[in-house]
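On clarity, I found the account of how folds are encoded harder to follow than it need be. Since the whole study asks how a given chain folds, the encoding of that fold should be made plain. For illustration, here is how one protein appears when written out as sequence plus structure tokens:

:::
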Amino acid sequence: MEKLSLLFKITNFPIIWIQKHLNRRQFFILSGIAVGLTSGFAAIMLKMAVHYIHSLLSANYFSNIHNLIFVCSPLVGIVLTVIVVKYFFKGKLGRGISNILYEIAQKSSFVHKDKMYSHLLTSAITIGFGGSAGLESPIVVTGSAIGSNYGKTFVLSYKERTVLLAAGAAAGIAAVFNAPIAGIMFAIEILLPEIVVGEMIPIIIASVSGALCSKIILKEDILFFFKLQQNFNYYNVPFYIGLGFFSGFLSLYYSKITHKIEHIFEKHKSTVFSKAIIGGLILGILCFLFPPLFGEGYSSIKLLAEGRASEIINNSSFEFLKSSPFFLILFIGLIMLIKVVATSITLASGGNGGNFAPSLFVGAFSGFFFSKTINSLNFSLPESNFTIVGMSGILSGVMHAPLTAIFLIAEITGGYELMIPLMIVSSLSFAISRHFEPHSMDTKKLASKGLIFTANKDKNILLQINISNLIDKDILTLEPDTSLRKLVHLVQYHNKSIFAIVTKDNVFKGIVTLDAVREIMFNERLYDKTIMKNIMKYPKRTINIEDDISTILKKFDECHEWNLPVIDNKQYVGFISKSKIHIEYRAQLINQIGAYE
């Protein structure tokens, strides 16, 4: 460890020297470049690793057992991932974009350093061996961890560290798609919705740096890139509106199925290895029946966008039906629906990946399915364009990120020819999805617990407050049969105006305040005749130990009290003061206000 520490100091000496000779703002901008290049290179390594694993599995010398690979490979990948997570990372990985939002909201943007490489390794194994998930979420986690730990190493402030965290994520997205604007939009929409213009400079620089790495290193066959087959025709606008509605409701289906399958696996009491084997076998069977479900699926999207949809059925059990146009529509529709199941099983059974790429996959298949179905009624919609625009619809509806979806598809098609339909489909899908489901699929669970940021700035600050630190455990306790004499004695020697009444087993029964006994506490004749259970009262509201800050403040407002007891399954814990919450809120506000110095 000492050698590693010495090596770290040597390799970072130039940056440390520069930090001493630049002002804060200049160093912060330079940091954006460093984080962007590092995160971009990490994203490229992951993308290339998965590409070469896929190439190996599809090599000629495996041609005789090609179908067997589809069954066994995903199982091997998920089991290997579970082994790596369990024995190398102690069972803790922190999957998904929601995990980064949690780190921002609850951990002051400190991301554990092992996430700089743990997601690269585990997602490469899962998806490289055929797991039906995406690399983008692991890339976001990796880039965020790089930015966060860079900020920690050079003792940057919370605000600066958070921006660099977002910069790392933006660089990762920009590198994997060669789409710098999409990377910036992702950071703004998903991670830092309240960022101001002045803070965007490091994110812009990092995103451009990541995209530059991609442009230089990645080959075109690895990049996700399209050439438009047809120009936009405004006569098709009504059909794009229809696709927007279709995408919105399909996004809701995506979210519901994902949470349902997650719940089934979480409820199952078997070991992690049993879940991995069950999930891997089911996924293998699905990939055998529907080969496009194998891996990320970007190659299948390209086939649809290039007008080679019939090749989708190749190597499947239904290849003999490929000449039938109606079966092609049915096959595409089934894959569109089953991809959600395959991705959910991949992640719920122990694999590592995300829903970014699967949402693009489902979107492409939905766009093709929609246009192909319309064309079967003697219309002539451009199926390639609908395939491309459909990706933005599902990505927008699932991730609740319409700007990211619009600019991502615009960039990977090399222009803004489809900007109007992209806006129509993305905005309609987002509006429908948001109407029925206020939170995105990745953030729903944490948002319901009040553990991540929202668009409400005051609530964002409140979420920084650690409730356990606010509990006052020094409030004196008395038993219900305690006499007034003892209470008067305690008042003489303690500066407390409220007392908790609890049983010998620490079960909370009520409270006694000085205001309640002020009229009788100087009447000595009542000292031994009056006991606490006769004068105590049960508060209008109590705080449960699991309540979030919003619930606690609501309870204070409802009862108009300044102190409320904290209860844990009827057991007394302490008191929380409303004034203490206000003091902590002001401290957090001061911590987040101010420009970079």
Observations:
- The chain is about 60% helix and 5% strand.
- The two ends are 34 Å apart (CA to CA).
- Strands lie at 471-472, 477-478, 498-502, 508-513, 543-544, 563-568, 571-577.
- The longest strand covers residues 571-577.
